[in-house]
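User: Predict the complex with arginine.
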Amino acid sequence: MSNRMWGGRFASGPAEIMEEINASIDFDKRLAPQDIRGSLAHAAMLAKTGILPREDAAEIERGLKTVAEEIAEGRFSFSRALEDIHMNVESRLNELIGPAAGRLHTARSRNDQVATDMRLWVRDTIDALDGQLAELQMALAEKALAHAGAVMPGFTHLQSAQPVTFGHHLLAYVEMLARDRGRFADARRRLNECPLGAAALAGTSFPIDRFMTAEALGFDRPTANSLDSVSDRDFALETLAAAAICAVHLSRFAEEIVLWVTPQFGFVRLSDRFTTGSSIMPQKRNPDAAELVRGKAGRIFGALQGLLVVMKGLPLAYSKDMQEDKEGVFDALHTLSLCIAATAGMVRDMEPDTKAMKRWAGAAYATATDLADWLVRALNLPFRAAHHVTGRLVAMASERKVGLEKLTLDDMRTVEPRITEEIFGVLGVEKSVRSRTSYGGTAPANVRRQARRWLMRLKRERDAPA
Ligand code: ARG
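Assistant: Here is the predicted structure with arginine placed in the model:
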């Protein structure tokens, strides 16, 4: 049998394999709520502009609401022969209300319909992700405030560099997530134009009101060019790009957690709720959640790359290739949501071992820069000269296998005779972090102020009426 939605000129139905490659219903059924929202707005507009008799529009509205209920309650039977969500909904509408259903598709096409559905779905998802990211920021800022003064080693090249505080380290991720939220918000702003009414590609001869449907669906305005309307997937690409960068941040944090929970680092302990045991090695506590957050970044990047490749060779306007936008977008944004939730859970439950962190913060001559800075401040040495003197002191301490603070004043004076007792005052890790008061520096007072500022901002935002 030929397709009952478009089969007029076809004598026979599709080959089985054609149906399989063509159908998108298995994955686009999740667009049902957006598809029905779009159809309701379209029908109301057709009635208002006199294109559809009021009675038909009322029937359509009633029928669409029934379809929505059937789908929400799992009573709807999706059919592959009907290809996609658009035709599944319309076909069921026809069963429910009869011929009036056939009028719904006046002045539109599946091309503008699917573009509208996808924009609505991506917009809804961005809003949900933004809320989740704010929660993760809140969890990080709370931990940061609690441990604003907990000294830990700061690294460059993964070599102990200078002491920092655990709170400062966590707040670095709050900043990254703020940029992620900014990128999603930015994508959302550009996304928020309505393609509905562009029809197949050229617009329509019916006197439709695209401003009315745009407004009804919460868009800022209708899209301005009908060809662009049906062939644009920038909104999906931009959102995936934002998701990919966000996944980079979550993955870097996950990597740090994986390092921190090793017995070798021993900086933090994760709760039982976010670790697993080994089936053979009874002593193990594996940070699987963190490893999966790190690993899942791969599929999010893959979705972005996949869609870029799908789009790059397409002539205007719609081509069926674009149906391939969906699975990647759905999977990537769902995956990101899962990663954010798992990261927030790990952060809330995470317990730092502040003693271990502090011990390592002082190791490996981490306060050498403080010593060099003292030489500059107290003896007025040029920094380069101070660097050299400090290097010789580090070499001396390293030869004796002791920390800098274990050298005697006499030892030090063999390198630089003007050094005084005062120098020992700058060699402690607490002193070191407390002295880093420059804007954005790791001084606990700074960290506390920043953490409080973030918490206030996040709470204000959360409690603000939407
Ligand atoms: N399922 C299709 C998609 O996702 C809907 C648009 C189909 N349009 C068409 N002209 N065949 O892209």
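The beta strands are 151-156, 159-165, 193-194, 221-222, 268-269, 351-352.
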